[in-house]
Design goal:
about 300 residues, elongated, single chain, mainly alpha
């Protein structure tokens, strides 16, 4: 029973009783080795085979064993029910718990969705819509996405500038400030404002309503900065996916839980926003280094 539960948690496809299938990945191989060892030590027999599916029809048959469409459909129904029940009828704490649970359910399914299809994207979009409604209902100070074309800008026109964003920055503001200092304006000076109205005319605002750089469509501020300055480094794109997921939800990213824990802890350790940025810049440096091996 213990082995069966472990195999189920890995998301194995079942060919028949006692025969389980996973896509070939090194981490899966090591996990299966551990389960095989336990079976053998218990007096049973276990074999791990690696093979290539040379026929398209056979490949499609195998992939169907991992279809999570039914799971996504059930989750999508729960998301829609939550929206239809009218968010105004929820208390903040209860709604946050509900949305957090739906997000975790999505993550569990997505981690075992080795061959994602439209069902995953549809559910992710619905969950993002729900999370956006939550922000609009209870976090009026969060920036609302605009719908406009993102213009390409020259970094040379944005040097030695004052950049302003809201106090007590969370993931998007911290990551955006790191991106600005590392890849856009090395001499950037940051100021932390209480309200958008406090932004000086000479400052470039980011991540608040009517700021120079803020959410556009489905993109968070970090992603808008990437597009605005033509930053196409794949490692920055990976960090962008992290920021997007932690800020507004979406497709789960494996490193998100660790980064969220670090940022939460740092916010508690450093109440001065300049010190907080200084410390978190090292975290983003480390992520960039890990993703690329090319930190400059």
């Amino acid at each position: 029973m213990r082995v069966w539960r472990a195999l189920k948690s890995l998301g194995c496809g079942v060919l028949r009783d006692g025969v389980y299938l996973l896509p070939y990945r090194p981490e899966f191989s090591s996990m299966l080795q551990l389960q095989a060892k336990e079976v053998i030590e218990g007096g049973g027999s276990a074999h791990i085979l690696t093979f290539n599916s040379e026929h398209q029809e056979q490949q499609q048959t195998f992939e169907k064993l991992f279809d999570r469409s039914t799971d996504y459909a059930q989750l999508l129904d729960s998301i829609r029910q939550t929206i239809e029940l009218n968010l105004m009828s929820y208390e903040l704490a209860n709604l946050q718990k509900k949305v957090h649970r739906l997000r975790k359910d999505f993550e569990v399914i997505a981690l075992q969705d080795f061959f994602p299809n439209a069902a995953r994207e549809q559910t992710a979009t619905a969950l993002e819509d729900l999370e956006q409604l939550l922000l609009e209902r209870f976090s009026s100070n969060e920036p609302q996405a605009t719908h406009r074309r993102i213009k390409r800008l020259q970094r040379s026109d944005y040097q030695h500038r004052i950049w302003a964003t809201r106090q007590r920055p969370w993931i998007d503001r911290l990551a955006s400030a790191w991106l600005i200092r590392r890849f856009i304006d090395p001499y950037a000076h940051f100021i932390w404002i209480s309200t958008p109205e406090d932004c000086p005319e000479v400052a470039l605002g980011f991540d608040f309503d009517d700021a120079t750089f803020t959410h556009v469509g489905s993109k968070v501020t970090f992603e808008v900065l990437l597009d605005s300055f033509g930053l196409t480094d794949p490692s920055l794109k990976r960090i962008g996916a992290l920021v997007h997921y932690l800020d507004v939800g979406g497709i789960p990213v494996p490193e998100a839980v660790g980064l969220e824990t670090l940022i939460n802890g740092m916010q508690q350790c450093w109440v001065n926003d300049d010190e907080l940025l200084e410390k978190t810049e090292k975290i983003f440096d480390a992520f960039y280094q890990a993703f690329s091996g090319n930190m400059t």
